[in-house]
Amino acid sequence: MEEASSWRRVAEIDVKMGSYSISNHQNSALTTFVGSCIALCMYEPAAKVGGLAHIMLPSSEGRYMPADGHEAKYADHALKVVVEGMKQKGARVDLLISKLIGGAKTFTNENSAADLFNIGERNYLSIKSLLTQYNIPVLAEDIGSTQGRWVKLDVSTGQVTVRNKTSEVIL
């Protein structure tokens, strides 16, 4: 039996909550699962460098900055470390693009603390504003709803696949 010509084996690198990963390995994909958090997917097409951050909260202002592998917990710090990490792998900042996924309203109880603070929307608005300040365009978004999403960034192409319980889309 012959395999489809577009099939190729990739190593999936799982990005945990509050962390990030950068890769320029062409047979790799960066993956995560987000609910109210935001998956910041960044790509530099000339150098073929990808970065994915799993952002949990909008701002580090007045907060403790973890040094335990959760450098991407806050949107402001996440963007800094991802941009710097991509530069170290050969990416040019002026060629960076981004895609945003997540920000779901995952709690159905309107009286829950997460809904009262609307953390998903605040995460999204924070990172979107920061990307504008950095002059990094947002080429695609899959934001909101009430479902979590699996996210996969293909490092060789910059293609982002987003899957929930009922569908799959390519951004």
UniProtKB/TrEMBL annotation:
Domain of life: Archaea
Coiled-coil region(s): none
Sorted UniProt keywords: Chemotaxis, Hydrolase, Receptor
Keyword Cell cycle: no
Gene3D superfamilies: 3.30.1330.200
UniProt keyword annotation of rRNA-binding present: no
Enzyme Commission number(s) from the entry: 3.5.1.44
GO molecular function: protein-glutamine glutaminase activity
Catalysis: reaction(s): L-glutaminyl-[protein] + H2O = L-glutamyl-[protein] + NH4(+)
A GO BP annotation: chemotaxis
Role according to the record: Probably deamidates glutamine residues to glutamate on methyl-accepting chemotaxis receptors (MCPs), playing an important role in chemotaxis.
Family: Belongs to the CheD family.
Protein name, per record: Probable chemoreceptor glutamine deamidase CheD
Organism of origin: Nitrososphaera gargensis (strain Ga9.2)
Gene this protein is translated from: cheD
